[in-house]
Design goal:
alpha+beta, two-stranded antiparallel sheet, 2 helices, two-stranded antiparallel ribbon, globular, 4 strands, 100 residues
Length: 100
């Protein structure tokens, strides 16, 4: 069963600028008033979990991760709620390229 995609209001994800170095993966902008309301409506034990994804067209975006500790609401896996293979099966393991 497919879960409903809930996009976080007031939370915008953009790709890196054209002159950004390789280690810059993108930008996040938060419109505090809108995102505060979204958080108040969707908090799970005081937390909001967002998945950062890439659309088929290559545009980055965020969606609410609705996984809960008991494994309900939004699927996911009980070990952590995020199924890497479902989103980015070709993500390489750490390659030592981290700038810090």
């Amino acid at each position: 069963m497919l879960e409903e995609t809930i996009f976080p209001e007031g939370f915008i994800v953009k790709g890196p600028g054209p002159n950004a170095p390789d280690f810059v993966k993108g930008k996040i902008s938060i419109k505090v008033g809108e995102f505060s309301k979204f958080c108040a409506n969707h908090a799970n034990d005081g937390w909001i979990n967002l998945d950062l994804l890439v659309s088929k067209s290559g545009k980055p975006y965020a969606k609410l991760n609705t996984w809960k500790k008991d494994g309900s609401a939004g699927g996911g896996q009980k070990s952590g709620g995020f199924d890497e293979g479902r989103y980015m099966p070709d993500v390489p393991d750490g390659d030592g390229d981290c700038p810090f």
